[in-house]
Task: inverse folding
C-alpha cells in the first residue's frame, strides 16, 4: 500500500499601500486595493480556476484513486469573496466530491507559533471554524505557516485535537532517514508527521521549466518512473508546493497543465502508488520513528529555518513591536481593529524585509510590492505606528490594564516553564525505566548464577 500525498498551499496577503510618515494618526486605511485585486484576479485566471477544473476532471475520471489536499488561508478566502467569488465556488465544488481534504492553519498566515501558545491556538481555532463554514469539513491535520514546525509546536497541535501535521523533510533533521515514511513527534508520539520530499516536489515547483536542467523536459511518464524506482519499502511520497505552481510560477505554455492532467494516470500505469489525503495516510500507515526538531524548521530557503522572516534586525524589531500589542488586543472588540490585527500579522510583511537576496532572490521578490527590504520595513513601521495609536486609544494604559498585561505575561512565562518541566520529567522517567530494566536484568543474572553455584555445591 503506497501513497502519494499531493498538497497545495493557497495564500494571498493583503498588501499594504505606500503609507507615509505624515499619514500616521490621520488615515487608518492601510491596503493597496488595486494591487490586491489585480494580483488575485490575475492568479485566479492563470492558476486557481483552470487548475481547479483540471483537478475536478481528474477526480471524476479516477474516482477514489485520485485525491488532493489544500490549505487556504483566511486572507485568501477574504480576497476570494471580495474579488473572485467564482474561485471560492470552484473550491467548494471540489470539496463536495469527497476527494479533497482541507487542512487547518493560522487564519492570518501568521508567525504566532513563535510568540504565544494561546494566541497561536486562537488563530487556529478561528481558521478551522471557517473551513467548516465554507467546505463542511472539520480539519484533522494541521499545517503551520510556511510548514514551520518544532517538537513543542507539534505537542501543542496534538493537545488541540489534531492527529497529524505536515512539515518539511529537512536534511539536517532527517540525517540518513528518508522522508518517504510516516514519522511521529518525539514529545507527543501520538502526533503523526508527514514530511515533504523536497527534491521531488521542487522538480515540479521550481525546475519544471528550466531548460538548463538535465531532466528537462519533465513528462508525467518520466516522473512516474522515478517514483517506481524508489526503494520498495518506501511507502509515502509527500509532494507539497504552492498552488500557484500551476499557471503562475510555471506558465501554461510550459506544459504544466498537461503534466497535471497526465500525472495520475502515469503514476497508476508505472508504479504501485495511489493518491491519498493526510488524514487517511495517518490511519493506514504506522510511523517508523520519531523525528527530533528542537528548533523551528520551515520549507523556505536552503537553511530550512525561519530566518527568511526573522533573520535580521528590521524583521525582529517589526515583529516585536507588533506582538507587544497582543495583551491589549485581547480586550478589543472593534471589528476593524481586529481585522487589521489579523492582516498585519501575515508572514509576508516580514518576508518582504528579508535581506537574503543572494541565494533566493527570485523567490523573495515574487509578488513583492517594494523596491528593497528597507522600504518594506519603513512602510510597515509607519502603518504599525498608526495601528498602535488606534489600539492604545481603544485600550488606554491605565493601572488595571497594566496589571492585566503583567498577569498575561506571567501566565505565558509559567506555561512555558511547565512545558519545559514536563519534558524534563519525561526524560527522567525514561532514564528511571532504563535503570530499572538494567537492575532487573542484573538481579536475574545474579539469581541464575546463585542457582548454578548451589547445584555445583
Result:
Amino acid at each position: 500500500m503506497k501513497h502519494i500525498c499531493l498538497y497545495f498551499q493557497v495564500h494571498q496577503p493583503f498588501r499594504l499601500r505606500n503609507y507615509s510618515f505624515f499619514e500616521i494618526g490621520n488615515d487608518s486605511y492601510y491596503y493597496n486595493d488595486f494591487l490586491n485585486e489585480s494580483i488575485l484576479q490575475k492568479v485566479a485566471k492563470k492558476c486557481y480556476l483552470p487548475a481547479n477544473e483540471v483537478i475536478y476532471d481528474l477526480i471524476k475520471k479516477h474516482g477514489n484513486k485520485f485525491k488532493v489536499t489544500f490549505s487556504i488561508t483566511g486572507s485568501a478566502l477574504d480576497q476570494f469573496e471580495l474579488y473572485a467569488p467564482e474561485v471560492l465556488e470552484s473550491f467548494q465544488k471540489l470539496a463536495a466530491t469527497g476527494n479533497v481534504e482541507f487542512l487547518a492553519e493560522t487564519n492570518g498566515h501568521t508567525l504566532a507559533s513563535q510568540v504565544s501558545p494561546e494566541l497561536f491556538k486562537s488563530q487556529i481555532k478561528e481558521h478551522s471554524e471557517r473551513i467548516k463554514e465554507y467546505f463542511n469539513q472539520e480539519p484533522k491535520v494541521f499545517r503551520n505557516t510556511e510548514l514551520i514546525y518544532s517538537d513543542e509546536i507539534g505537542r501543542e497541535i496534538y493537545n488541540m485535537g489534531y492527529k497529524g501535521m505536515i512539515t518539511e523533510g529537512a536534511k539536517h533533521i532527517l540525517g540518513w532517514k528518508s522522508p518517504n515514511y510516516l514519522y511521529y513527534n518525539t514529545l507527543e508520539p501520538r502526533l503523526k508527521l508527514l514530511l515533504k520530499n523536497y527534491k521531488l516536489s521542487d522538480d515540479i515547483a521550481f525546475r519544471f521549466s528550466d531548460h538548463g536542467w538535465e531532466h528537462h523536459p519533465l513528462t508525467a511518464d518520466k516522473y512516474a518512473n522515478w517514483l517506481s524506482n524508489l526503494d520498495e519499502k518506501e511507502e509515502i511520497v509527500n509532494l507539497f508546493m504552492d498552488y500557484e505552481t500551476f499557471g503562475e510560477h510555471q506558465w501554461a505554455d510550459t506544459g504544466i497543465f498537461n503534466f497535471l492532467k497526465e500525472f495520475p494516470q502515469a503514476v497508476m500505469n508505472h508504479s504501485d502508488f495511489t493518491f491519498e489525503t493526510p488524514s487517511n495516510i495517518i490511519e493506514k500507515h504506522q510511523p517508523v520513528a520519531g523525528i527530533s526538531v528542537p528548533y523551528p524548521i520551515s520549507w523556505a530557503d536552503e537553511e530550512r529555518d525561519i530566518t527568511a522572516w526573522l533573520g535580521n534586525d528590521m524583521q525582529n524589531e517589526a515583529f516585536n513591536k507588533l506582538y507587544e500589542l497582543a495583551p491589549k488586543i485581547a480586550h478589543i472588540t472593534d471589528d476593524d481593529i481586529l481585522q487589521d490585527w489579523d492582516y498585519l500579522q501575515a508572514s509576508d510583511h516580514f518576508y518582504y524585509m528579508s535581506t537574503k537576496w543572494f541565494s533566493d532572490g527570485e523567490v523573495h521578490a515574487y509578488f513583492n510590492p517594494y523596491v528593497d527590504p528597507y522600504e518594506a520595513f519603513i512602510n510597515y513601521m509607519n502603518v504599525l505606528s498608526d495601528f498602535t495609536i488606534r489600539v492604545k486609544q481603544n485600550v488606554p494604559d491605565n493601572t488595571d490594564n497594566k496589571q492585566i498585561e503583567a498577569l498575561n505575561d506571567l501566565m505565558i512565562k509559567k506555561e512555558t516553564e511547565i512545558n519545559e518541566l514536563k519534558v524534563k520529567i519525561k526524560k527522567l522517567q525514561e532514564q528511571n525505566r532504563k535503570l530499572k530494566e538494567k537492575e532487573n536484568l542484573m538481579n536475574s543474572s545474579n539469581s541464575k548464577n546463585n542457582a548454578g553455584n548451589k547445584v555445583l555445591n
Summary: Residues 407 and 413 are 10 Å apart (CA to CA). The longest helix spans residues 399-456. The chain has a mean pLDDT of 92.
